[in-house]
Hints:
There is one protein chain. By secondary structure, the chain is mainly alpha-helical. It has helices spanning 2-32, 39-57, 61-84, 93-116, 141-163, 165-175, 177-182, 187-212, 220-234, 239-260, 262-279, and strands at 131-134, 137-140. Strand 1 and strand 2 form a beta hairpin. It is globular. The mean pLDDT is 90.
Amino acid sequence: MADLLQVLILGLALGGVYALMASGLTLIFGVMRIVNLAHPIMIVVGAYVSYWLFRLYGVDPLVSMPLAAIFLFLIGLLLYKLVFAREAANAKYSEMTVLMTFALAMIVDGLLGALFSNTQRVTTPPYGTQAIFIGDIFIPTAQLYAGIASFVIIGALIAFLRYTRFGYAIRATTQNRAAAQLMGVNVEFVSLVTFGIGLALAGAAGSLVSFIFSFFPAKHWEWIAVLMSLVVLGGMGKLMGTIVAALGLSVIAAFVGTYWGSTWSTMTFFLALFVMLLVRPQGLLGDKIEEA
């Protein structure tokens, strides 16, 4: 029983981090229909921000997380204005963003590789090697703190979207961009800020990733498929669906990894995606697909 409870706790903690990693991706797609394949490399950028602040100045990753988020938020504003804003009205915009963000990911990957090489790095705060024992249950503090921080940030994001005026504007734009514009919502400004918020979430996730995983520039290729699986499973652009998918699949993957080996745990995400596309193509909370 203790083993099952331990695996459940670790799965939920890791699921919280995955949910945070995917939440910015979901938010950006929901508002702007941008399929952001560069999102995982921005998480790596956030990890490097926290890593170097820790390495040079001894700043704890949990403390530097707001700095990484602000840094990525500013990068998001700049990228949207320079790269994504001009073609937003194009009928083929979503398809175009796949190629645009793939190219962006390649550029940032190459830049990080040139600056820092592909050496694996990890931030090593004191709690990174500690654990909490509750009877027979063993909980690594790094994963526990990362999971708690992820839930706090996601909770703040949900509250922001539900209870603030700008959150209403984001939700309205997500539901129907044209109708929101007719009702007086400045969808261009909403898109700009939302893209920044999406990358800020990537920066915050990167700070947590920096001490629970080892990372290097090319690490983002391992995360693209997992994060896209969560976004599709939840229902493209549906934040709550993505959160539910991340938590559920992370728990299942934790049990699979414990009893069948870590090689099979990642397969859980892809198998679930395959089954979901067969049974419910719109995802868990996605809108029903209308037949032509």
